[in-house]
């Protein structure tokens, strides 16, 4: 598989995080000769926040993990993730597999089933063989180092492992945030995307953790799209071990959170960008900045309409500054728009304004600009103050290759 | 260009229609060595009904033709259609081109500008050079035969001309309905699709004509999608010359319309099917039948969510009966759905039921069925009485080829 041209040169250095240990294994769920199982342990007292797919046909692991989020326990929190099957639409066998995996993990890692957070990613419609995971648990020695190995174990069509890290000051204490994510196709998160796990040693109450996550998922994971297809497995968990020295923060409006908020955004943004930049078949990374819409929500919908248009995406793949298709995609969004107040830029060039091609625009500007790997399209609706930025990739032959025979 | 494997063996025989004459010409708007201009004349008294794109950034010809629909006139109705440029998002130059074309047509063909119905199809963002059309008008000799030539003149990425005809009894009089259409990409009609012209010699009032059209556009043109991209130019006109012998019908509930309604549906359905079966890059024609939804509207949205899913479409291209992606697309539609009451069939085979793969299903059933050219996917939501049927095609390498360099 060709590595995405937008892959980072190397996996970032994610330091061990106080309160967390982990391990990976080769469970052989589907793939051979690679790891496909990750277990993360958060020490007793670890708080967990999460957001999940809004797809109406979620996988059994999503149902389970939604409930686990509110489970109260004194034991450690255990996260178990496998790749190879998504264990979605697998009926009673899928639900049994989830229960069996949770029981196995609770027994081996010394917790209770209500504290087990599960996720599976891969083919839909095939039940997980839980015994393959459970059999591995006793062989897994959890320790503090292993974020890159974890990021590799949860990959499916990803061309590289994805990780990010940041530090923040809470009072005089420096805390760390580590995150890993996977995802490449079926990416149009409507809550969170595919699988992402972010952990910190900060000492935060569950409500603060959930508030911080909810506030930042909009401009990060919910603003990327590869193919408009919202996964049945999207899961984003944020775990806080509380191992850091500062006193617990239990009020989201606490000023001590300012720097942490910034660092959390950096990690979430970085991970979500890595996902879209590893979009199936990507040759161009595209940023779409919308302003002048009647509201931020309207701007987001218009941006997504452009980002998901097959005709816009194929034009970009063909290095064609096809403003006509952008106009079409703005107009089909179902949001207030006026052809005659709409302005469009590609990179530094005004492409269209006043309902027509800009008089200053020359085809050679577009032809030259579109050869770049990273394309910025800016739209101003000229109607109001609403803004949004969304991120996508082009639609290429490789997307067809990957998805016309992914199962085989 | 490869002809769609679903193209009819030959263009149907469309008889001359009393009250209508027409001609085509080579105006050289963009294409060389082929016709690109069609003029249709409906005798004085001809009634016209129409539906247009709901895209918020419509072309200048759409704006013009919307107004012309309500223009009252004693003169003949003149329809002027060109291919090569859509004259959309071309600002004042585009509006001027529309006015100039209408004036030229009115002068040459002996009508008034308010009776000229215009449409342009092709590249967006380039103004029509009206003089190219106007210069041809004096050379065009309108006569009664020429439907196939007309269907050819309005083609863009279409691989074959599209026409349909039917007859109906109104009282003791036999009337004829002829229709032509064009369209292949940017097809997700939200009212009508691209360009379609249907004409009859029946004697119907304008309100009856519009009622009949509005009633039938839902299950025909509004139920097809190639790529989810709603064109800025969608136009469907229905013209009635009134040359037939029966007395005028001015009440939509008149029982004498029963057979005409059936025949009109046959023509609209046939044309819309020809468009989706000539979808850009098509290798498989796909019918999606939805039942058991909470309402017909909900069933339609769910059907369209499946029909527009890039992952479903690429799986079909790969001859993969990938029920998991179908489940995903049902769940992402935003409509009421329940994984555990959802049933899915491909052709005669129950694929999934009760929230899992059907126990009777074998992979070889799907493998064998998916090799067919025409695929039927049936979904039952198990929630209510809502039904809908939508039509689409698969997503192939050819779609990328066509659209990554359509402008060049």
UniProtKB/TrEMBL annotation, chains A, B:
Pfam family, one: ArgJ
CDD domains registered for this protein in UniProt: OAT (cd02152)
Keywords for this protein: Acyltransferase, Amino-acid biosynthesis, Arginine biosynthesis, Autocatalytic cleavage, Cytoplasm, Multifunctional enzyme, Transferase
A single MF term (Gene Ontology): L-glutamate N-acetyltransferase activity, acting on acetyl-L-ornithine as donor
Listed EC numbers: 2.3.1.35, 2.3.1.1
Site feature Cleavage, where: 192-193
Subcellular localization, as worded in the UniProt entry: Cytoplasm
Listed InterPro entries: Arg_biosynth_ArgJ, ArgJ-like_dom_sf, ArgJ_beta_C
Reaction(s) this enzyme catalyzes, per UniProt: N(2)-acetyl-L-ornithine + L-glutamate = N-acetyl-L-glutamate + L-ornithine; L-glutamate + acetyl-CoA = N-acetyl-L-glutamate + CoA + H(+)
GO annotation, biological process: L-arginine biosynthetic process; ornithine biosynthetic process
Pathway: Amino-acid biosynthesis; L-arginine biosynthesis; L-ornithine and N-acetyl-L-glutamate from L-glutamate and N(2)-acetyl-L-ornithine (cyclic): step 1/1; Amino-acid biosynthesis; L-arginine biosynthesis; N(2)-acetyl-L-ornithine from L-glutamate: step 1/4
Chain positions of site Involved in the stabilization of negative charge on the oxyanion by the formation of the oxyanion hole: 121-122
Positions of substrate binding: 156, 182, 193, 280, 403, 408
GO cellular component: cytoplasm
Domain of life: Bacteria
Keyword presence, Amino-acid biosynthesis: yes
Catalytic machinery residues: 193 (nucleophile)
Described purpose of this protein according to its UniProt entry: Catalyzes two activities which are involved in the cyclic version of arginine biosynthesis: the synthesis of N-acetylglutamate from glutamate and acetyl-CoA as the acetyl donor, and of ornithine by transacetylation between N(2)-acetylornithine and glutamate.
Similarity comment text for this entry: Belongs to the ArgJ family.
Subunit structure: Heterotetramer of two alpha and two beta chains.
Name of the protein this chain belongs to: Arginine biosynthesis bifunctional protein ArgJ
Protein source organism: Litorimonas cladophorae
């Amino acid at each position: 598989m060709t590595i995405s041209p937008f892959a980072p040169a190397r996996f970032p250095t994610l330091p061990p995080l106080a309160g967390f240990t982990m391990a990976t294994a080769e469970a052989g769920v589907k793939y051979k000769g690679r790891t496909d199982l990750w277990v993360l342990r958060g020490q007793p007292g670890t708080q967990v926040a999460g957001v999940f797919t809004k797809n109406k046909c979620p996988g059994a692991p999503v149902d389970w993990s939604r409930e686990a989020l509110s489970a109260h326990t004194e034991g450690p929190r255990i996260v178990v993730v496998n790749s190879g099957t998504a264990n979605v639409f697998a009926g009673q066998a899928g639900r049994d597999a989830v229960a069996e995996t949770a029981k196995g993990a609770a027994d081996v890692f010394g917790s209770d089933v209500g504290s087990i957070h599960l996720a599976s990613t891969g083919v839909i419609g095939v039940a997980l063989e839980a015994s393959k995971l459970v059999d591995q648990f006793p062989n897994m020695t959890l320790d503090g180092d292993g974020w890159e190995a974890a990021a590799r174990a949860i990959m499916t069509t990803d061309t590289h492992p994805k990780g990010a890290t940041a530090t923040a000051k809470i009072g005089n204490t420096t805390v760390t945030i580590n995150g890993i994510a996977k995802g490449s196709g079926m990416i149009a998160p409507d809550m969170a995307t595919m699988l992402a796990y972010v952990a910190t040693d900060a000492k935060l109450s569950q409500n603060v953790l959930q508030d911080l996550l909810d506030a930042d998922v909009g401009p990060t994971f919910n603003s990327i799209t590869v193919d408009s297809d919202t996964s049945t497995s999207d899961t984003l968990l944020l775990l806080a071990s509380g191992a850091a020295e500062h006193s617990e923060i239990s009020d989201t409006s606490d000023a001590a959170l300012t720097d942490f908020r910034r660092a959390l955004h950096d990690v979430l943004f970085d991970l979500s960008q890595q996902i879209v930049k590893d979009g199936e078949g990507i040759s161009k990374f595209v940023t779409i900045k919308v302003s002048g819409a009647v509201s931020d929500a309207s701007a987001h919908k218009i941006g997504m309409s452009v980002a998901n248009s097959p005709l816009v995406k194929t034009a970009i793949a063909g290095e064609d500054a096809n403003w006509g298709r952008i106009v079409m995609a703005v107009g089909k969004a179902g949001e207030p728009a006026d052809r005659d107040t709409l302005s469009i830029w590609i990179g530094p060039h005004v492409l269209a304004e006043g309902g027509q091609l800009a008089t200053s625009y020359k085809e050679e500007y577009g032809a030259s600009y579109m050869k770049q790997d990273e394309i910025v399209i800016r739209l101003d609706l000229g109607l109001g103050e609403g803004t949004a930025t969304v991120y996508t990739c082009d639609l290429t032959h490789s997307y067809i290759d990957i998805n016309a025979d992914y199962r085989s």
